Each structure stands twice: as structure tokens, then as C-alpha cells.
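Reviewers asked in the last cycle whether our approach scales beyond single polypeptides. To address this, we selected a multi-component target totalling 931 residues and predicted its structure end to end. The input consisted of the following lines:
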Amino acid sequence: MLHQLQSFAESSNSTPGHTLQTALRKVATTEVNRRGLLKGATGFVLAAHFLPSAAQAFEAYPTQGLNMPNGVRNDPHIFVSIAPDGQVTIIAHRSEMGTGSRTSLPMIIADEMEADWDRVTIVQAEGDEPKYGNQDTDGSRSLRHHIQPCREIGAAVRKMLELAAARKWGVSEDMVEASGHQVTHKTLGTRIGYGDLAAAAMALDTPARDQLRFKTEQEFRYIGKGQVPIYDLHDITTGKAVYGADVNLPNMKFAIIARPPVVGATIKSVDDSAALAVPGVEKIVQIPVTPLGSKFKPLGGVAVIAKNTWAALQGRDALKIEWDRGEHGSFNTADYEKELRASVAQPGASVRNQGDTEAALKSAARILTYEYYQPHLAHAPMEPPAAVAAFKDGKCEVWAPVQSPYTARTDTAEYLGLKPEAVRMNVTLLGGGFGRKSKADFATEAAFLAKEIDGAVKVQWTREDDIRNGYSHTSSVERIDVGLDADNKVTAWRHRSAAPSFLSTFVKDEGNQHEIEIGMGLENLPYALPNVSAEQCKAYAHTRIGWYRSVSNIPRAFAVQSATAELAAELGKDQKDFLIEMIGPDRVLEAKASGLPGKFWNQYEPQEEFPFDTARLRAVAELAADKAGWGKTLPEGEGLGIAVHRSFVSYIAMVVHAKVEDGTVKVPEVHVAIDCGFPANPERIRSQMQGACVFGMATALHLGLTFENGEVQQGNFNDYEMVRADNFPEVVHTHIVPHPFSVHATGVGEPGVPPFIPALTNAIFNASGKRIRNLPIGDQLA
Amino acid sequence: MKITVNGVEHSFDGDLSMPALWYVRDELALSGSKFGCGTGLCGACTIHVDGEAVRGCLVSMQELDGKSVTTIEGLSADGNHPVQVAWRDQNVPQCGYCQAGQIMQAASLLKSNPKPSEQEILESMSGNICRCGCYQRIVSAVRQASTGA
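The resulting structure, written as C-alpha cells, was:
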């Protein structure tokens, strides 16, 4: 998402990588033509020349990855090296924040190249997109965009190893076969290890794609099996894993920064005498304050630089800063909620107009209006932002837990007035990201301070800094008006959304949403209804807005799936049956027939390859319901709730079992049905679904930022509460819809969160009769 | 003052009000103990003081005079403490950041109560937050380390 926003803000330009990918896509297209040619081909020579190789076991298909800045790379020489002892090193170019992509993508390469996983070392790439292709780890894209290039890399290396062996033995290629980290002479049975072939093999040019033999799915060792533990498991369990704050450099200083309490507030005066008197405090450095709309530039403020973190913390406490609170200094959440509600009471700008919704509402026998609220949210990853930077001889090296290391590098270079070549951005493990670490203001802070002190420094954000000075997730009011005819048939559905956009972080705020936000459940209601409209209503930002895991899908799924359940209750119908009825006949959503002015946003994925298929949506809803025993009798105070949502081009339904007792809610069980196309690593899909339920439960039960006079009122886990071991979704059953590789792999990291929240609130309704329309639930059940 | 960390004795003459977390991280470069909240609310910095789990961000150096501290790096010589093994068998972590604290908490629980009930596990582990949401596996791993199943 980041890069689309950048191109929106700046206008992107073509790159060598892009060109390569365009060429690659042409290859894919040509293969289709070849097959077409073959059908009618009679000449032997022609047929032999175009004989489809085993490459056809895996048909290339285009993804949005090809259009991302710097595209995707499939050059094995960039990603794989083999040592003489046979140890294989694979580059992980995507950031690891807990989804498992650092394991899953190299695992795919290892499988296709027939490498033994136990002999694979993973090296994390620094931020260098011209070399590695796009590295923006966001939008649940890693597997979706890189499963094909990873297979191509792996198959190419295997081919190169086979070629090297064949040459060494002086036999033709079809006489040898690579398997299990060695190449075997098929007739003699002689074997030679990968290490002994490495130098010769890796000196070869990359074979053309149509020369590659891809494995059949039956031949996979690791892909689709879910038997490979995450690569960093041992280091994590022994305390050796390195996160942002864990990098130690010689003579490194420690910085804690006092940032503006209100975004854009400027410094009137600073008295740093008491801070400088704290033992261990060495220097005070001001960082220029930036207004709203400064992208990922540091907020600015006053940095205390000390010999250790503790001294820097005490030094910051001792600073006396007078702030001019600026234009957002009167921002109050209570007023803002009213403003958003007033905004959706008026017509907004149409983003979808199917049929004639206004006329249908006018002639409706009755109109039911539902309104849902979600406050601003802080990401609060367990690792607060932190980064280490060293400046020397006009160059800066940074170590940081960043989701988009190349953006972090180029942004940092620009901020420092350096060329990108003068900045190196090393990527540590991320102690959670959730979208926060796409915005590398903290890495730039460290680089700036390193330059100021001409040395090495670590910037540590406290939890309060993280909650108060981050990038808030949008707050929203979603209003749905439903028209019913005299027979209680739904004739019209109008959805209005007012939510400040993350565009305000990039450009002048016009109060409008970006196509990404509109595309996340506002324009693509998948219900079979004659009249559907969607409008975006004005909402202006008063704090830095930045996407949070699942982005606008959270309020949209909450609104649509709650309204569906409310309607079912109103009409005396079963929640699940009514949901299935609303989804209607199996079909692929068409933009024009749906009343869209253009195309569906569709996560920028090509519609032909990743269509919105309501049969798959219905199927996951039915699967989750069946597995949960939908319709079973539960004790008083307990209930099941269902919700379904397609996001990140995956279809997920959840049935939550809720137990409401003494004003609190417990979740003994969740059944998740996920259709994410070909499931490359089922084990991590399950862990992501378990995590999504916890993340969703925290968001539903507790989370919300409130601003008073422009300042966030929450600060730590006492007032920004997480779900804990004493109350979490106890058992999450994940049912993965099986698909072959030909059904394209889709997103997993984010799509689990949106359906959880309405499934929970729908369950709460069935358990207690209480309908939750405003998040968080807080004490609403008391 | 003197403090023993992972079996090694150190003398310390700095600010006695400094929390142990910053001492082990900044002075000893033992970075396995994590900073998460600074106020004892998340458990990411959990260490053992004379065998008992405490929050490294709350306990000051002054309170540790003459005490023996164990961090995740010193929990076992080979990284094969039963809790660490169980954590790996259950493939618990997602991002992994909170896991050292979780493991230290679980190890301390099982030392004082080798066969905790389900409720005792949940209560003991409820001071340790995992934002990724690994609780289901955390509980399974504690159970495995306790009962072997």
C-alpha cells in the first residue's frame, strides 16, 4: 500500500526492475500463446520446438507484484549461494514481523531446488529494491507476490546444479537428477553433493523459464506441508534473536525523545538545564517539528542523548518544554465522533451506484438505519519503535525493525540530505509490525541523531511514545440504510462511510478517502441486491493517520456483518441463513454491473486472476458454520455468531462462541474457515488465524484512543489494554479450504481480523440480546 | 554493590535506582530481556531473581545487591530447558519479541508448581502480553513442559 501511496503523492517512474517484470509478464503471455499454437500445430518440427516442457506444471500468472516499484526478482544469483561444504544461503528480502514470511519464502526456494532445509542459512537483505525487487512487507503480499518467483529461483538453481553435474560427468542433462541436496547419475547411481557442484553451477547463466522443470505438487517436500518450524525458533527461545533495540555498537549513545504532545505543535522554549544535570546525560539535540502531512518524517522534538537508556529517560523527564499546541490543539474525540455521525447523516460522494438506491429507499415500505463507530487505534506492537544508527565519513548505517526497508532508506537519505547510496538500512527482526513499522520515522530519527553527534546512537521509544506519538488507525462512522418492501424483502442498501484518510499523512487533507480505503469493503458489498450504493462522506484528520493491520476492512466488516445480523434478527431469520441468502447465487462480482464508475480496487490484483467469487465466500461461511455446529443449543448466556469477509483477496468466515457473564465476555471457541488459495504453509496460516482472533478480540473489547485538546489520553497497557492469557479465544480451529497451486495463493496476515470482530459481537447478541454498535465494547455489557 | 548474572559476578557502581532491565541490556549487552512497557504491565522483561520471576523494568539495582539474576540467556546452558523445548515443539512464537519473558515466567511457575492446573497456568501467564496472540500455543507449551503431553 505504501508504494501506491507514494506514487499517488509523487508520481512513480519506471525502473529496470519494472522493465524486467514487464518482460517476464510477456513470457507468461507467450506461453499461453504457445499452448494455443500447439493445439492447431501439425508440423513435427514446430511441435517439437514448442513442446511444452514440465514448466507447464506451474503456469505463470500476473500479480500486482509485477507493478510494484522495482517489481519482483527471480534471479537465483541474487537470492541463493552455495558454499563448498554444501551449506545453502538464501536471502530473505521481506521483513519478518511474525507472519513467517522469512521462513516460508526461503522454504519455497529450498523445496524447488531440492535443498535440505537443515542445510539452509537465511540471511536478511538490507533495504535495496533495485537489487532485490520490492521489499514493502505490507498488504498481506509476501506469499501472494513471491511464491512464483521463489519457485522460479529454486527450479533455476536445481537446473543449474543438474547442468553442472551433467557437464562434469560428460553426459546429457536428462541423465542426471537433483534430489535431496545432491545430483545423481541416473544409470550409474553416482552421486555428487551440491557443495561440490556449487562453483560450477552458480557460474552458469540463469536458465530461461521455459527450460525449467517445476516440481509437481506431489513432489513437494516442504511446500504445503506445514512441517517446517520458523527459522528463528531456536534464537527466539534462547534470547539470541536480534530486534531493533538489540543492536549494540561500540561507543553507542542512547536517545529518548520528547515529541510534540499534539501533532504539529511547535517548541516555544526549552529549558534543558535539569536534564543536562542528570548523571549520564551528555547532550540535548533538537529535531525540527513537522506538521501533519509530512509522510514518515520524524515528528520532531527534543532528544536527550545519554550513556544509557535509563539516564536518557530521566533526562527527558527533567526537560521543561513549552509547546505552542498549533491547529490540532483543540481536537477532542467526543466532538469528533459527533462530527463523523453528522457527516454520514448527509449524502456523500458516490463510489458505487447500482440500480437506483435513492428511489428504492424512497419507495421502501420501511427503512432500517444502522450506525457503527470505531475509534482511532494505536498499533502497539510488543516491540515499541527502536533503531540504531551510526554516522561516519558522510555515510549512515541504520539497523531497524522496518516493514519497508528501501522506503526507510530513501526517506532517511532525503531527510539527511544524502544520496540513497550513502545510507544502508539493515533489517532486524520486527517485534510485531501491524503497519506501524511501515512508517520508519524512528529509523530516520536515529540516523538524524547519529549525524548530529557524528557517531552511533540508539533511539528507543517508550510505550507511552508508541501509543501517543504513532500513526493512528482511522476512526470511522459507517452508516447503513436498508430499504425493505411490504414483504420484508431487502430492496436497497446504502452504505456511507466517514473516516479520516491516511492520505492526510502524504498530501494536503481534502477529507476524502483513498481508493485503497474505499476498496476495503465499501465499494464491494457482495450481496445479491437490486439497488446498492456506497458513499464516502467528508472526514478530516487531526492526528497522523496510518494503516493498522487489516486497515479499513475492520470498520467495514464490522458494519456490514453487524447490519446483516441485525436485519436477520429484525426479520426473525437465522443469522447464518440470512447471510447466505444475502450473498445469493454463485457469481463473480462485475464492476460495471455493480454500479462502479471504474474497476474494483481488488487489492490492485488483476480481476481476471483474483476475481471476487461469491461461491467461495458462501463456501467459507457454510464451512465455518458446519464445523461449529451452527444451530446447536447452548446454555443461557452463550451464543454463536457468524461473519464473513473477503479481504487481501482471501475469503474468511468465522463462527465465534461467546459466553457473556457478569458484564464480561469469554470466547471458549472459534471456528475459522479460510480460503486463501493454495495454502503454502498451513502451519503459519493457523498461527495467523489464532493471532487474528486475539488481535480482533483486543480491538473489539478494549482498544481505542481518545484525544483531549489534541493529546492522546492513553499511554500504556493499563489504559490501552490487551487481551491476556486469562481471557483469550481459547481454542481456534482453523479449517483451510484445500486448493491446488493453480488456485492462486492470497493473503493471510491481515484478513483474519475483520470477520472476528462482528462474529464476536453477533455472538454477544445471541448470547445476551445486547447489540454492540460502538467499539470498543468496554463496559457496555455491564 | 555486587550482582551475579547468569552465574557471573559483576560489581556495579552506577545509579542504584536503575531498573535491572537497563543494566542487563545496556551494560551487559544481554538483549534477550525485552523492553515492552517499563511499568510491569507486559512481562517482556521477565528475569529470575534467586529463581523467582520478576519484572526487570521494576526491580532496581539497589534491590539486587548480592542477588543472583538469571536472564533468558542463562536459563539453560544449551537452550534446552524443558520450557524452551516445549516452546519449540509447539512452534509457539510469531514475532517472538515477548517470548523470552513468557518462557522465563513459565519456567518460574513450573519450578514452584511443577504440575499447575489449567487455571493456575492461565493466571500465572496473564501478566505476559503477546500482541501477536500466541496464547493458545503458550498454554499448550506450558502444559507440555509440565506434564510431557
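Chain A has 22 helices and 26 strands. We regard this as preliminary and will revisit it once experimental data from Aim 1 are available.
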